[in-house]
Amino acid sequence: HGHCTHIQGDCGPSDAQFPKLDKYADMGQDRMRLNDHFNAFMRPSTPRNYPVVAINYHKLWDNLPAVMEAFGLPQEFVQKFPPRTETVRNDLTGKAEGNAAHTEKTRNGLKRMYSTILDDIRNNPAVRVV
Predict the structure, then answer these.
(1) Beta bridge pairs of residue 55
(2) Distances, alpha carbon 103 to alpha carbons 42, 85, 87, 91, 107, in Å
(3) Is residue 77 predicted with pLDDT exceeding 90?
(4) Which of 40, 103, 108, 112 shows its CA 20 to 30 Å from the CA of 119?
(5) Given this model, what pLDDT does residue 2 score?
(6) Nearest Cα to 57, choosing from 23, 84, 88?
(7) What is the reported pTM?
(8) Tens of pLDDT along 79-122?
(9) φ and ψ at 129, to 5 degrees?
(10) Which has the closest alpha carbon to 109: 32, 24, 19?
(11) How many CB atoms lie within 10 A of CB 93?
């Protein structure tokens, strides 16, 4: 609820009234307005007087030299970059944790709800100046 409030989503008046992640995914309604948030950065409705550099997390580790170049950083920083780590949540972790938010059903619901953003991210380069 706090994150939703911070990004000016449709959060309801209290934490108790905002659904847990598994219920949120079942609803299929972008109450956090992540689509709007993403589009405001990637497709601004009015020109900005400053650039926004968008880094594609999913392509970052395969393109570290390009990222360093985009930021004007020395190429030797590539070796100092931390290794990629991923936390995988699936039905086994959801069951072991007793947490319905960490199930494949929840993940699939979120993927459906945010499929437009996910497709856009997949199609973006590792570094994009907007």
Answers:
(1) 127
(2) 30, 19, 13, 4, 6
(3) yes
(4) 103
(5) 78
(6) 84
(7) 0.81
(8) 999 999 888 888 888 889 988 888 999 999 999 999 999 999 99
(9) -100, 120
(10) 24
(11) 14
| Helical ranges in the chain per DSSP H | 2-6, 21-27, 34-42, 57-60, 64-70, 77-80, 91-97, 104-113, 115-123
Residue 55: phi and psi, rounded to 5, are -105, 125
Token duo for residue 124: 């973006």
Question: Tokens for 118?
Answer: 């996910």
Tokens of 31: 């109450």
Residue (of 46, 43, 75, 78) closest to 60 by Cα position: 78
Do the bridges between strand 53-55 and strand 127-129 make them parallel or antiparallel, or are there none, so unpaired? antiparallel
Cα distance between residue 20 and residue 42, in whole Å: 28
Q: Tens digit of pLDDT for each residue in 22-57?
A: 999 999 999 999 999 999 999 999 999 999 999 999
